[in-house]
């Protein structure tokens, strides 16, 4: 059952992203403090404004990562239902997917799984499907072979 490995992959990736964002947040605060000590007129104001924009963008990224963490935690005790749903690992004759949060690909044995959200275009097509059902995406028809 690949769910545990896929879940751990997504969790690890998300934890790493949050660590990087927190480091970046600390760097921005240091830059903001440093810019506050400067008094170079218009250049000073422009520098502060740019740092503030970076801070706002970073805040949005942190919110998104924390939201994904909450969503992912719902899959801690996932049980397969035989129908593609949030938390399913889906294998097709063309590609494999983990319906959870968007993330990097995960290699399990010889199978590469694309970590996608249920709201993604392929996620929407897969939801509710069973083994043997087909989906068509970008002109390619895929048949579902395994759902766990």
Give the fraction of residues assigned to helices. 40-55%
- What oligomerization state is this entry in? single chain
Counting helices, strands and paired strands, the structural category is: alpha+beta
Strand content: 15-25%
Anisotropy-based shape? elongated
Main pleated sheet: 6 strands, mixed
Tally of helical segments: 3
From the alpha carbons, calculate the radius of gyration and give it in angstroms.
Answer: 21 Å
- The end-to-end distance, rounded to whole angstroms, is 7 Å
Task: Determine the mean pLDDT.
Answer: 92
**Integer tally of domains:** 2
* Overall number of strands: 6
Order of helices and strands: HHEEEEHEE
How does this model look, in words?
It is a single chain. Helix 1 packs antiparallel against helix 2. It contains three helices and six strands. The protein is elongated and about 65 Å long. Strand 3 and strand 4 form a beta hairpin. With 148 residues, it is an alpha+beta fold. Helices cover 49% and strands 20% of the residues. The protein has two domains: 71 residues; 59 residues, no CATH class. The mean pLDDT is 92.
Give the SSE map.
Layout: H1 3-37, H2 42-73, E1 89-92, E2 96-99, E3 106-108, E4 111-116, H3 121-126, E5 134-137, E6 140-147
Which labels suit this protein?
148 residues, alpha+beta, 3 helices, 49% helix
Short description:
This protein is of the alpha+beta class and 148 residues long. The chain has three helices and six strands; from the N terminus they run ααββββαββ. A six-stranded mixed beta sheet has the order 3-4-2-1-6-5.
């Amino acid at each position: 059952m690949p769910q545990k490995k896929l879940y751990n992959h997504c969790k690890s990736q998300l934890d790493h992203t949050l660590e990087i964002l927190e480091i970046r947040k600390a760097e921005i605060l240091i830059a903001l403090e440093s810019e506050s000590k400067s008094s170079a007129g218009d250049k000073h104001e422009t520098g502060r404004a740019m740092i503030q924009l970076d801070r706002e963008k970073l805040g949005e990224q942190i919110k998104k990562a924390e939201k994904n963490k909450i969503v992912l935690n719902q899959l801690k005790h996932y049980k397969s239902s035989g129908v593609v749903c949030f938390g399913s690992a889906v294998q097709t004759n063309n590609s494999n997917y983990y319906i959870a949060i968007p993330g990097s690909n995960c290699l399990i044995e010889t199978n590469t799984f694309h970590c996608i959200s249920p709201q993604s275009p392929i996620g929407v097509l897969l939801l509710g499907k069973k083994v043997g059902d087909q989906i068509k995406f970008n002109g390619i028809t895929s048949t579902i072979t395994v759902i766990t």
